[in-house]
Structure formats: C-alpha cells, structure tokens
Amino acid sequence: MLMRTDPFREFDRLTQQLLGNASGTWSRPTAMPMDAYREDDAYVIALDLPGVAPDAIDIDVERNMLTVRAERRPVAQGEGVQMELSERPLGVFSRQVMLADTLDTEHISADYEAGVLTLRIPIAERAKPRKITVTGGADRKEIQG
Questions:
Q1: Predicted local confidence at residue 12, as pLDDT
Q2: With the CA atoms of 26, 71, 32 and 29 taken in that order, what torsion angle do they form, in degrees rounded to the nearest 10?
C-alpha cells in the first residue's frame, strides 16, 4: 500500500478537481508546459508530455496557428485492477502558438523522446539576412534627348 507524505498535496488535488482543472476534455483541454527558443536558423518548441503515447499526439498547422493536442490515458485498466493512488493528470492537453510569417511552416519537424515533444520550425529563406549589391553611376547610361 502507498502512503502519502505531503498532507497539502491532497488538498491541492481536491482544489484542482473542484475548479475543473484536474483533467482536460476535448472541449476543454488542459494546457501543457512549454519552452520556446531560437537555435541557429530554427525556432524550437519543447512541450512536456510525460506518459503520453506518440500515437496520442496530434499536431496541426492552419495558416500560422500551430496546435498541439495530446491525450494521456489511464495505464492500469481491466479486471482485478484496483487503483490505490492516482495523482498523475489524465485527459486531453492542448497548446496553441501563433507563428510568425518569417517561419517555414511547410518544413516543421517533430521528435518525441523521454516525454518531451520537440518541434523545430526553420526560418524561411526570405526572412534570413542577405546582402544587396549596390550599383554605381558608371553602370548607368544617360539618355540624351
């Protein structure tokens, strides 16, 4: 049998259940923690999804809106299973991020390892710095009339 060592954790869990934050649904998903940063010529978004099966993750891009949805399902189910303690949040998790026009949404890559979903979004070629050649007056012909 498992014993609790933190008496306030149960109070926090009950408060979350009363406020409707304990588990997300498809119509009202729970937010997932995220980090975002630039690395060389790409933006990287890392989302925490521990315990989520890769086939339960859905990634969509519509216009410039990136949507990540995932569902964590109960692990122990069936006859003879009696849940003793359940603190891990279950249900649907979602996060939406508005992407800048300078990102190449056609070439987003996704990797899922150790419970972290990592999205790499390359910077579009048109948004990268480039040199502009300046031509001098000697290169122009004057038209006389």
A1: 57
A2: 10
Region of residue 130 (left: phi > 0; alpha: psi -120 to 50; beta: else) = beta
pLDDT band at 25 (very low <50, low <70, confident <90, very high): low
DSSP 99: P
Question: Which residue in the block uniquely carries the two structure tokens 């869990």?
Answer: 13
Q: Residue 44 above 50 pLDDT?
A: yes
The rounded distance, in Å, linking the Cα atoms of 41 and 102 is 11
Q: In whole angstroms, what is the distance from residue 118 CA to residue 115 CA?
A: 10
Mean pLDDT across 24-48: 84
* Residue 104 burial (10 A CB sphere; 0-12, 13-18, 19+): middle
